[in-house]
Structure formats: structure tokens, C-alpha cells
Design goal:
Blueprint (H helix, E strand, L loop, with lengths): L1 H7 L2 H21 L66
Length: 97
């Protein structure tokens, strides 16, 4: 099997295989949207936001944070939770007079 492949390999065959690999890779790249410009986006009347056709200027630095707003209303009281386990007995108190 290996000898058959060695007899068939020539410079021309290697070039054909390389061209086929490049063509398939290029097709996969184009199908995945790998290019910067997609389809007919830059033909007459089609503009993308944020591209060089945008009329907006550059964004400046972010401003200072504003004051905290007023505190909201208290929510309704929640349900009572389950009873806890009984604690250990306390120490006896001091003797009175």
C-alpha cells in the first residue's frame, strides 16, 4: 500500500492536494463569517452601526457616579420559620437574701 502511494506522489499531485485544502479552508472561513465585511452590507443604502459611515463622534470618558437614590418601602413580613431545637439548661442563679 505504501509503495503504491509513493509511486503516485508527484509534484503535480501534491500541488493539486494543496490547492484543494486551501480552497476548502477558504470556503469554511467564508461560511463562518470570518471576514470583516459580510455580504452586500456596504452597497448603496446599507450601513452598519459603528462602522466608518457612522455620524457619531468618539465616546468620551465615563462621568462620575450619581447620588444614591432614596430608600425603598419595607417589604411585607415573611413567614415564620420552623421551631429550633431545645437549648441546654442554664446555670443556677445567685442565692438571694
Amino acid at each position: 500500500m505504501l509503495s503504491f502511494l509513493r509511486r503516485q506522489m508527484s509534484v503535480t499531485n501534491l500541488m493539486v492536494v494543496a490547492a484543494l485544502i486551501f480552497a476548502m479552508a477558504g470556503g469554511a472561513y467564508a461560511a463562518s463569517g470570518g471576514g470583516k465585511h459580510h455580504g452586500n452590507a456596504h452597497k448603496a443604502g446599507h450601513k452598519h452601526k459603528g462602522h466608518h459611515n457612522s455620524k457619531a463622534g468618539k465616546r468620551g470618558p465615563r462621568g462620575p457616579e450619581g447620588k444614591q437614590g432614596p430608600e425603598g418601602k419595607q417589604g411585607p413580613e415573611g413567614k415564620q420559620g420552623p421551631a429550633g431545637t431545645a437549648g441546654a439548661a442554664g446555670l443556677p442563679g445567685a442565692k438571694g437574701e
